[in-house]
Amino acid sequence: MQACNSSTVRSGGWVLRLLLFSLLVDGAAIPIAGRTPTVLAFDVLLPLVVVYMLWQNLFGACYWGFPDKTLFCLGLTYFFAQLLSLLFNFRDTLRSILLIKISFFGFLVYWIAIARTRSRIDLDRITNCLIAWGGILGLILLYRFVTDWASLIGPEASYEVKELGISIGRSNYLAALLVPIFPLTLAAVTARTGCQKLMPILAAFAMAAGLLITFSKGALLALVVGAIVALPLLVKNGLRFRHVILFVVLAAVFLWVMPRDLVLSNYEMVAYRLNNPDLERPDLWRVAWREFLEHPILGIGPNCIYIYNRQYAIDVLHTHNFILNWLAEGGLVGALPFFAIISVLIRRSYNICLNPIQVPGLKRVCVALYVSLLSTLLHGLVEPTFQGPQYSVIFWSCAALIFLYDPDRGLSNKTELTTA
Where do the structural domains in the chain lie, given as residue ranges? Predict the structure, then answer.
């Protein structure tokens, strides 16, 4: 059976865009065993796409393989480990199945992205789709702030905003969705010329406003630290002091045009937190570490740490640290494959920044992907991220871009990068 040609893939390139934007559509609450989980349009569309692609594999003239053999093996190992942890831990079976589904669906998006993208035009379209997705989310947050949240100002009141949100999730989770996309958007602004800059500029403004509205100190700090860690690569790929000055000036202008109460509220909340440290997260970390030591092999079961948080710390669902969360819930059997996946992605994103790519715009995108990965992982050390269905899809979409932009594995060594 022959592999699909570029024209066939291009005609179906709309599939990934449809899946991404279906995440923004409100879901429906379905009562199951006394609970009401939300079923998204994405949850219905993705299985249909997968069945269609598998049908083409078995009975059609087009074969969709899995180009990334390394992550394919690690991914299968990880999901079997989660199932094994579930089989030995029946603390909350429905929640465990939910987390496995979220992780598996995100990985399927990765497969669809790398399998259906065979041309540089499609690669640009995926990048543009992620940027547009983040921009739309930023606009939604800006609209909700203007219509509903603007009255909540001051350091104490702003913490009420952090408990608000939209149908996707509350404010800190929304910030987690923007973190991996924001550096990619800034790179697109610098890599393009003329009117092609307009879309990423508008998206960057909307995302920056969205991050400010979420009052997420962890998200902003993660972006700053991620950029600092990647500073040698940024300098090697053209960053100069004048660019830093220009960025500072643009940031100052952005803060000047934003509502004064919003900017002051963020500043006052940072000062408030410095004077009143958050002692709840360390309690959650201690609980997770203790449960890992007591259940080091298979953990306590996927998505079940909330049971122990409720007993020994505070009543929240997750540990607010993906490393400790995975160790506690999956044990070494479940956590090691996941950490191996993360290490492979970090190594790949770093290596593509070192490749002698001739297109300057492409270099900036590669470095931006490295900053995005570092920033979102750093943010995951203080906020729950991987447990969300939207975040799982965005994370694996960025992972697909890392694979596809690699000259040794993806498309960047075939034709010139288009900027349309």
Answer: 6-405
